[in-house]
Amino acid sequence: MSPIRVLIADDHRLFRQGLRQICETVGCLEVVGEAENGDEAVALALQLKPDVVLMDIRMPVTDGVQATRQITACAPSVRIIILTMYRQDQYVFEAIKAGARGYLLKDIDEQELMDAVQAVYRGEALIDPVLAARLLEEFCRLSQRTPEVEKLTPGEMEVLRLVARGLDNKTIARELNLSERTVTNRLSEIYQKLHVTNRTQAALVALRRGWASLEEEQEANM
User: Which one, of 83, 89, 81, lies nearest residue 106 by Cα?
Assistant: First the structure.
């Protein structure tokens, strides 16, 4: 199996070196490049087409949110994990709309980081519990400005609840005894009805509206 190709984007060289060292100790990961600012991250992502980008939020020239938005617009197959040390950073909420797939604090341990890279590569979405609470608060604050969503069908609601648990399309198809094409089609309808553009945004809408809960996800993972 080919290794997961990783691009590291952070303005602190020592942190980049630390991430590279961690990745290189794992046989299934390969660091293909490093960027010290957002512009370099975009250029390298488009040039190298990594599987996963580990993206800092606060970087010079172009910040991680803008870089994420540009990468996902031009290379949607590249999956981005935001790494931040700011628990209350407003940029994290904006990163969701930019298309990032993971949102983790820099104090996670090595194994958690490796698990996150592999999970996001499989198509799952990961949010640190502290950041998840912060994001849900932000969604509630903006609820007055959130457009009304169209009613989901029972089948679409089943898919959405499994998306909120972090499952990828292949696993959802197996759980519901559906084809992956059917799951993909239902997700497209869900995105349109919820006025979102990716599975992380859809999951957060489900959590905010009470269609799914963090407790359900934790129980499913036990």
Answer: 83
Domain boundary among 85, 115, 139: 139
Task: Please indicate whether residue 143 or residue 168 has the higher confidence score (pLDDT).
Answer: 168
Q: What is the pLDDT of residues 43-70, one digit of tens each?
A: 999 999 999 999 998 898 888 989 998 9
pTM of the model: 0.64
In this structure, the answer to whether residues 162 and 57 fall within a common structural domain is no
Asked whether residue 84 falls in the same domain as residue 58, the answer is yes
One domain for residues 70 and 164 = no
Please write the tens of the pLDDT for every residue from 75-118: 988 999 998 876 655 667 778 778 888 888 888 888 888 888 99
| Domain end among 115, 139, 163 | 139
Residue 154 makes CB contacts below 8 A (sequence gap 6+) with: none
